[in-house]
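Notes continue from the previous slide.

Worked example: a multi-chain complex. Inputs as given:
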Amino acid sequence: DTAVSQTPKYLVTQMGNDKSIKCEQNLGHDTMYWYKQDSKKFLKIMFSYNNKELIINETVPNRFSPKSPDKAHLNLHINSLELGDSAVYFCASSQDSTYGYTFGSGTRLTVV
Amino acid sequence: RKEVEQDPGPFNVPEGATVAFNCTYSNSASQSFFWYRQDCRKEPKLLMSVYSSGNEDGRFTAQLNRASQYISLLIRDSKLSDSATYLCVVINQAGTALIFGKGTTLSVSS
């Protein structure tokens, strides 16, 4: 039973399109995150939600909008996709940051 | 200064070797530290937390030096299956998110 699941696993789309990535966790954690890992493998936080409330909103273009309908779900919608958005997007969850995170398997987004 | 800095490697070692990775962090107020492991095209997975007194988990030993803001990971008796990227991770100043280093790549060969 997957603890943090993301869909889709792969996403290839054209510039200018709008796409969404979904994430669900069944661990009962209160906090969920979106991280971006670029081509240089650098993993950087984008957003964090605690029990549906936005906690962290790093310097991310407004084209990226997270949505948390409940504490088990955190989705990421991206408008007007650009080539530079190509990356692997990881969802994660934690009960308490001091215990580390559990990551989903990632969504590999390729913008062509 | 970057928040978390690591030597990117790669470290190429034979099976059975002992290898050490180092990491420095910029926020002296950080309270939580971790090592994560990431295999190629996979998600990061928690390897171990790092405690002030140092801690060991089998062949893996983690050390923390708060005065120098320095974290280390020692792997003894390397196995082929240890080949991966090792990520040094520090909690941010607000305690609300983990900050990842760029990772150190290890390749263990037979």
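Summary box: The interface with chain A takes residues 31-32, 34, 36, 42-46, 49, 85, 87, 89, 91, 95-100, 102-103 of chain B (CB under 8 Å). Chain B has a mean pLDDT of 93.
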